[in-house]
Amino acid sequence: MAILNIKNLPDTLYRKLQARARRERRSVAQQVTEILSRALEEPEPLSILDMQGLGKEHWRGIEAAGHVERERSSWD
Questions:
Q1: What whole-number distance in Å separates Cα of residue 64 and Cα of residue 70?
Q2: SS3 at position 1
Q3: pTM above 0.85, yes or no
Q4: Is the alpha carbon torsion for 24, 29, 32, 38 positive or negative?
Q5: Cβ contacts of residue 31 below 8 Å, gap of 6+?
Q6: What integer pLDDT is reported at residue 39 of this predicted model?
Q7: What are the residue boundaries of the structural domains of the chain, listed by start?
Q8: How many CA atoms lie within 13 Å of 43's alpha carbon, on the beta-carbon side?
């Protein structure tokens, strides 16, 4: 397993990290690992079809990202 050393970490940031680790019942190292894991996780793409509300029936069969890109490029 890799070792990560952080130099010049501000004291206030370290105290906040310690406090959060205590609240989560983790060591500081475990808390840092958890924070980094969540921050670097790839979010699952959202689908317009999963949105609540009116109009989603108009998006069936349309790839949303491509549609948005075409719309944005037409503004130029």
A1: 10
A2: coil
A3: no
A4: negative
A5: 17, 20, 21, 24
A6: 93
A7: 11-40, 44-76
A8: 4
pLDDT recorded at residue 49: 67
What the block records as the tokens of 11 is 């004291």
Q: Which two tokens stand for residue 53?
A: 């509300």
Kindly report the number of other CB atoms within 10 A of residue 28's CB atom: 13
Look up residue 42 and give its amino acid: E
3-state secondary structure 11-52: HHHHHHHHHHHHHCCCCHHHHHHHHHHHHHCCCCCCCHHHCC
User: What string of pLDDT tens digits covers the 76 residues of the chain?
Assistant: 899 999 999 999 999 999 999 999 999 999 999 999 999 998 877 776 676 666 767 777 888 788 888 888 888 6
